[in-house]
Design goal:
This protein is an alpha+beta fold. The chain is built from eleven helices and five strands; from the N terminus they run αααααααβααββαβαβ. It has a five-stranded mixed β-sheet with strand order 2-3-1-4-5, sandwiched between helices.
Length: 342
């Protein structure tokens, strides 16, 4: 009979708990059921007063309120619910409760324990209300901080993209899409250092469009720009991926040729020269056929004791020899400056 009475008592409490959940439009989840079972049983007077106080002030219980109350009052209940198993869904996934909110929950539990010791129920209810409000405030601040961080990330991404564009524009010539003079300077110093360390050859090729000023004067700068782009394309198409083709300035181009001897560089220069000379140039607007475009090319190769300046100076000297001997030539060091025209 005693067991039957206990069963009926617990069944009555269970019905009361479920009725309370339905009355307050709360999901019949284990933690909610446990909370209102304890509420109905009267085993935790402070819990009842806390719930009644929140209901009076707020008119209902939010998921955050339920989580806070479960953490504070049900930690030691023999219902299979533990501190870590209780979900904390109001501010994020259950597996990763935010530190600030978890701290507020811990503070709530501490306040409950302290108030229980001193027996001041009114103070406990007030603390519960304050800590629930503080938790909500923390969650709102967390949300605002996350939004601000998201905006900051977006701004940083946009800034990075802008910096990448600036860097690209700095390191590449906008007209020809070849590397810029600034890129040439940095790459050439590095190529010299690597050649000295490895003992591999390194050659530098300088090229200049013959009579480009008169070409510009006759056909106009737009046509001149078109010729520069086509010459740059011919240069690009006749060098390897590891080579660096640059617009050195005006109508001058430079090509850094790592791992390339002087004889091999002459072959590269001849390919570039003949590719440009054999190309037919026309004015875009009228289709008028332009006079042939030719290049003069000078080549120098790295020697012991060379600096970037000395190697550039010798390549430039070979370029001027090519011009002085009639243009449309490739001239390398220690070779006859006059080469057979293609």
């Amino acid at each position: 009979m005693k067991d039957s009475g206990e069963f009926l008592r617990k069944a009555s409490l269970a019905r009361a708990a479920l009725a309370a959940l339905e009355r307050h439009d709360l999901a019949p989840e284990p933690q909610n059921y446990a909370l209102f079972y304890a509420y109905a049983s009267g085993s935790e007077p402070l819990l009842k007063e806390a719930i009644d106080g929140i209901l009076r002030e707020e008119g209902g219980l939010s998921r955050a309120d339920l989580s806070m109350l479960c953490r504070a009052f049900l930690r030691d209940q023999a219902l299979g619910l533990t501190w870590h198993e209780l979900p904390f869904e109001a501010a994020g996934p259950a597996s990763t409760p935010p530190d600030a909110t978890a701290s507020a929950a811990a503070a709530l539990a501490a306040a409950h324990a302290a108030a229980t010791r001193i027996g001041n129920r009114t103070a406990t209810i007030d603390l519960v209300r304050r800590l629930v409000a503080a938790t909500r405030s923390i969650e709102e601040r967390k949300r605002l901080i996350e939004e601000e961080l998201a905006r900051s990330r977006a701004e940083l991404d946009a800034l990075q993209a802008s910096l990448d564009n600036v860097r690209h524009e700095t390191l590449n010539d906008q007209l020809t899409t070849l590397a810029s003079r600034r890129h040439f300077d940095a790459t050439f110093e590095r190529a010299i250092a690597e050649a000295r360390e490895s003992g591999a050859p390194l050659s530098l090729l300088f090229t200049d469009i013959d009579h480009f000023k008169s070409f510009n004067d006759r056909y106009g700068h737009q046509t001149g720009d078109h010729v520069l782009r086509l010459v740059a394309l011919a240069v690009k198409q006749n060098v390897r991926e590891q080579d660096t083709a640059c617009r050195y300035g005006g109508e001058e181009f430079a090509v850094i040729l790592p791992g390339t001897s002087a004889a091999e560089a002459v072959v590269v220069g001849e390919h570039i020269r003949t590719a440009v000379m054999s190309r037919e140039f026309r004015r875009r607007a009228s289709g008028e056929r332009l006079r042939p475009v030719t290049l003069s090319i000078g080549i120098a190769s790295l020697r012991p004791g060379d600096t970037a300046s000395s190697l550039i100076e010798r390549a430039d000297s070979c370029l001027y020899k090519a011009k002085s001997f009639g243009r449309n030539l490739v001239v390398a060091e220690d070779e006859s400056p006059l080469r057979e025209r293609a």
